[in-house]
Amino acid sequence: MFHCIYRNSQRPGAVTNLTCGEAQTVEHFDARGEQFLIVKVADHKTSLTYGDAKLVLDEEVASWFLAFRDSVRHQRGSFGPTEPLFVTTSGGKVTNLSKDLSILASEVNETRVLNPTAARKATATIAAGMGSDVQRRIVANQMGHSSRTAGAYYTSLGDDSQRVEAYQTMDNLRRRKLGVESEEVIAPKSKRVKFSQEDEESLRCYFKGANKVSLDDARKFLAAHPHINRNPKQIQDKVKQLFS
Predict the structure, then answer these.
(1) Residue 22 maps to a domain
(2) pLDDT at residue 68 greater than cutoff 70
(3) Which of the four pLDDT bands, split at 50, 70 and 90, describes residue 82?
(4) For 138, which of 32, 166, 226, 235 could close a Cys bridge (C-beta 3.0–4.6 Å)?
(5) Quick one: 21 and 91 in the same domain?
(6) pLDDT tens for residues 214-229?
(7) Residue 189 in domain
(8) What mean pLDDT do residues 82-104 have?
(9) Cβ(124)–Cβ(11) below 8 Å
(10) End-to-end Cα, the chain, rounded Å
């Protein structure tokens, strides 16, 4: 369950609400020789805006998913089409995945944060620094961001090839940004960005008292100040802090 959510940066509901019927109607997708499984979930937070959530599973996770669906799930109670695919050991619906993952981490002495919300925030922060509007738009739609969060950038995404591209983009982002394999990245702990006095002075001079800065403005600032190793979102937040 965790890998289904984490590798797609989805909300918990996109997995806990997955039904046995939906698990039976998966789609196979070939991306230049690499095989993926696409699982559609109708019941999730932003379904009215984005339609079905689509979980993209690479070959490794897909093999686990299919093994659970075909060999394990029927041992956990009713396997009717409207029943949840993932259930508790007693056959009930999983209602608080974040809490369950925290308990699991504690029991196996896992020090990393197994938290879907933190994982989504980490992906969004990393994606904010991407240079391509197209890639940001693809990632945002795969995450199912609300229209308020997405703003003018985000539009509906229905093409399975773009879903797979979003999955690959997010996976590559995590590897490149954090320098580790994706399965090792759970949810990096949030760190407050500390700007030097020189950096703050550069911001004050460049933006001249503006209390609202777009990400495009932040990118232009970073292009003019390459020695400041921040992403556009961090610049945007810092300007707001400086002039609020």
Answers:
(1) yes
(2) yes
(3) very high
(4) 166
(5) yes
(6) 888 888 888 888 888 8
(7) no
(8) 86
(9) no
(10) 41
Instruction: Flag whether pLDDT at 74 surpasses 70.
Output: yes
Residues 26 and 89 in one domain: yes
Q: If we measure between CA atoms, which residue out of 75, 37, 121 comes closest to residue 113?
A: 121
Which residue's structure tokens are 């209390």?
211
Per the domain annotation, does 224 fall within a domain?
yes
pLDDT for 22 beyond 90: yes
Same domain, 9 and 75: yes
Sheet containing 34-41: order of strands: 27-31, 34-41, 53-58
53: helix, strand or coil: strand
* Token representation of residue 95: 């209602």
Give the torsion sign (CA, 64, 73, 69, 12). negative
Number of domains in the chain: 3
Provide φ and ψ at 105, rounded to 5°. -60, -40
Single-letter amino acid code for the residue at 141: N
Q: Give the span between the Cα atoms of 41 and 123, in whole angstroms.
A: 21
Q: pTM for the whole thing? A: 0.53
User: Which of 2-6, 14-18, 45-49, 171-175 has maximum average pLDDT?
Assistant: 14-18
36 found inside a domain? yes
Distance CA 162, CA 142 (A): 9
Which domain, by its residues, includes 205? 197-243
- The count of other CB atoms within 10 Å of the CB of residue 47 is 16
What angle (nearest 5°) sits at the alpha carbon of residue 58, between those of residues 54 and 63? 105
Q: What band does 191 get if pLDDT is binned at 50, 70 and 90?
A: very low
For residues 208-228, b (16+ Cβ closer than 10 Å) or e, as one string? eeeeebebebbbebbeeeeeb
